[in-house]
Amino acid sequence: MNQHEVQQMTDSFKINPLQFIPGEETFDQEYSVQKQYTTLVFENRENQQAHNSYQQELREMQSIENGDLEQLEACWLDLQPTAYGKLANNKIRNIKNHCLIVVAFASRAAIRGGLAPEIAYSLCDSYIQQIEDCDESIVLVQLAHRAEQQFTKFVADLIPASTKEISQKARAHIDACKQYVFIHLQGKLTVRQIAAALELNPNYLSSIFKQHEGQRLSQFILVEKIKVAQKMLIYSDYSFGEIAHFLGFASQSHLGTHFKTYTHQTLGDYRAFYQTKQKNDE
Fold first, then answer.
1. What DSSP state is assigned to residue 197?
2. I want to staple 270 with a disulfide (CB 3.0 to 4.6 A). Which of 95, 176, 197, 265 is the partner?
3. What is the residue extent of each domain of the chain?
4. Superfamily of domain 168-281
5. Model confidence over 75-117: pLDDT tens digits?
6. What pTM, to 2 d.p., does this model score?
7. Residues 158, 114 contacting (CB under 8 angstroms)
8. Distance between CA atoms of 64 and 150, rounded to whole angstroms?
9. Are 153 and 144 in contact (CB under 8 A)?
């Protein structure tokens, strides 16, 4: 997406906040909502139909929040296929709407579990786009469950091997630190820079991060940059030098050295292997 397209998208969201306040324009729609709501409640009671329980929904979201994949999959077995609400007249549109809700809820559960909001939002956006582009009912449901799995795995990866008590204040600082890192992975990024942005002492930030995350903040930054490099190697055509520059490495060689330490593969070998694998999977 070029700069002009980004600006067009940004402009499209520039709406006067007062326009969001319900006014007379929505009176007719509100009447229809209340009428349909009353009819649905009556029909469901008459037919002894009910939605999947709220407790089941809570267990599913708590599984994601706790990074508990086994519990999540157990929750799926409790779902009743006939106990979903009607969100659209068209069958596929109805399934899509349910899947969109599942993905959105899962992303928020992952954030409560410690996943950086920007990562959660971006993954959520990606799954929603895939759902919108799909018209096969089975694939749609699998996509929604795949999203829940991915969010759960992300949260699980955040849980230290030995869980330590952490104050609410320290957790807030660590979460803010991670969020800053994820947003500023492009370019050079230092502990001092992050601490200054968060108005914290660099030594204090480094100390609480190492104590509660089990690794140095500088190491966390490096690993996250390598993860971005991995995705760029697979899903983009950027050269090794362009990727190194984008991520703030001194040179392609500098990136290559750290990349091989982390993945045990060179940049070229990694791109060749995974792009070939992706084509074969297609």
1. H
2. 265
3. 54-158, 168-281
4. Homeodomain-like (1.10.10.60)
5. 888 766 555 667 788 889 989 998 999 999 999 999 998 888 8
6. 0.58
7. yes
8. 9
9. no
